[in-house]
Amino acid sequence: MLDLLRGAGPAGLGRAELATRTGLTPQAVSKITARLGADGLIAEAGRAASTGGKPRTLLRLVPQARHAAGVHVDRDELRAVRVDLAGRVVGECRGPLDFGAGPEAVVEAVVRAVARVADPVGLPLLGVGVVAPGPLDHRAGTMGRVTGFPSWKGFPLRGVLQGRLGLPVLLDKDTNAGAAAAAGAWLRATWPDADADADADGDAGLVAGAAGGVPDAYGYAGGGPRTCVYLHVGTGLGAGLWLGGGVYRGARSAAGEFGHQVLLMDGPPCRCGARGCVEVLCLGAVARGDLPEAARILGEAAANLVALLDVDRVLLGGRVVEAAPDVFVAGVGAVLAARALDPARPVVALAGAGVAEGAAELALGPVFGRAE
Questions:
Q1: Do residues 96 and 76 touch, judged by C-beta distance below 8 A?
Q2: Can you tell me the distance from the alpha carbon of 211 to that of 207, in angstroms, rounded to the nearest whole number?
Q3: Three-state secondary structure along 257-284?
Q4: Mean of pLDDT over the chain
Q5: How many Cβ atoms from other residues are within 10 Å of residue 303's Cβ?
Q6: Which of 83, 270, 274, 352 has the smallest number of Cβ neighbours within 10 A?
Q7: Residue 121: pLDDT over 90
Q8: Inter-residue contact 12 to 5 (CB < 8 Å)
């Protein structure tokens, strides 16, 4: 129910609509909404236009009622955000990080960052999403043998942070958070600014609204991205998969190791131990200052993934992409167009949200009925 109200935005939904969409009885909806209202999570959003009977009371989510934090632990930088229930950033900090300094130093940096973005006088955080370079075990909350940083293998990062923060912590790969951010970007589009909910009790609530029927940020009517891949180009290269309405991690949390597919047999050695991986080829082109070539290499690898998964969207992010977005969108798009076997090829676009925002989106998942 909270998820439906989040998707409806400040305009809200009526109780009858909630009953229809959830399959619950009107009586059950009334009881649940009364409890959610008492907890401050929902409020009235005005009344719908009359169709002959008594105007329906509309209900909306109260985004500022709860917050969550997201932390992106990169190889050389840490960024943390605090978001409201609509996924809008209300606090942020970033700074340098030496991932190679080891787990203890990184834990201290995460704890400090969460303290900086937390609201000292507001409600406590619902939870913290922490994302880091893979591989890692999402279910167990332990780190894998991160390429170039073997000392991290087996470290129980989630458990250690839960003990230090006293909050629920979700651990995932940075690329999976990028995929989650894609869905969050659509949801944030229904909450256009941080002050919208403050005015929702007035005239803004007089027009009934719902997410259905309105094209979203990716051109869909009635929902966020159905299937997409998020390609992250930063200090490493990886992919996040959004399939079937959620992040796809695989049975061993190993899905999305995109950067270590081999494109060039007997190519330059990669830090993973193989040769000719897309990561070493792409980042090598970046290091030479040849961004069009880096985009072409990324596009070739993306075309392999598109041919395998038949996705609707290819979303690009990471600091390398952000430094030259037009080059990468055009370059990847050109390769996909050249290799497309079907005229209805995927759209290539910027991700529209950062990895830290995606980490916070994952932390919000249980609130909205998504078991992350």
A1: yes
A2: 13
A3: CHHHCECCCCCCECCCCCECEHHHHHHH
A4: 86
A5: 20
A6: 274
A7: no
A8: yes
Query: In the numeric block, which tokens belong to residue 300?
Result: 């070739």
Q: Torsion-angle region of residue 222: left (phi > 0), alpha (psi -120 to 50) or beta?
A: left
Give the list of residues 6+ apart from residue 239 with CB closer than 8 angstroms, or none.
Answer: 175, 229, 230, 231, 232, 256, 257, 258, 259, 305
- Per-residue pLDDT of 234-250, as tens digits, reads 888 999 998 877 888 88
DSSP state of 310: -
Q: How far apart are CA 56 and CA 275, in angstroms?
A: 64
142 residue type, one letter: T
Q: Do 114 and 128 touch, CB atoms closer than 8 A?
A: yes
Task: Look at strands 13-14 and 67-73 and give their pairing.
Answer: unpaired
Confidence of residue 222 (pLDDT cuts 50, 70, 90): very low
Amino acid (1-letter code) at residue 300: E
Burial class (CB in 10 A: 0-12, 13-18, 19+), 27: exposed
Query: What pLDDT, on a 0 to 100 scale, did the predictor assign at position 47?
Result: 86
Band of residue 137 on the pLDDT scale cut at 50, 70, 90 = very high
Q: Please check the confidence at residue 232 and state whether its pLDDT lies above 80.
A: yes
Selection from 83, 57, 60 nearest residue 70 by Cα: 83
Q: Give 159-184 pLDDT, tens digit per residue.
A: 999 999 999 999 999 899 988 887 66
**What is the distance of C-alpha 192 from the center of its chain?**
18
